[in-house]
Design brief:
The protein is mostly helical. 63% of the residues lie in helices and 5% in strands. The chain is built from 7 helices and 2 strands.
Length: 183
Amino acid sequence: MQHQSLTERAPVLRRIMAAWVYDYIICLWLATAILFGVRLVTGLTASSLMHVQLLTFVIYVFRDTLTGKSCSIGKLLTGIRIINTKGSSPPVIWQNALRNLVLLGPYFAFQIVTTLWQTTHSTPIDMCAPLHFFKIGCIASTSILLVLEYYLMLKNDGRRLADKLASTKVILADKSTNSSSAT
């Protein structure tokens, strides 16, 4: 087996599978399971969609720290991991959070604001002009960010805007370095 260098970038399809297919589904499942467990233990019935969305957001933002190996569960399953570009060490928690906030911040902001609106107002969302413009802004910014992020993943070194801001890079995980990266 050939040794992989720390600069070998992860294939785009693996990154997409890790982030969107595995990680989002796992984060949503974890949030739902946690809230269901809280409801069973406490007897509270107030666990609404807003709570699931908020907890999913928090888990998703910190998903790359859940395994302790500088990668999310999806990255672990697809054989990729994140490194700090300043020394090839695992990124610190704020770098992981920043990477995930850049892309999904506008989407989750929209989800949380609209859910809060629905729980506090009797006026339908479509009838509130400021909320409608906020929704359009969130959808537009998320769409633009998605296009930009995937364009950058296909370019030169494969680093997204979020990777550049957080000084990180997603690489293929070498089996010998992936097991020791939790230190």
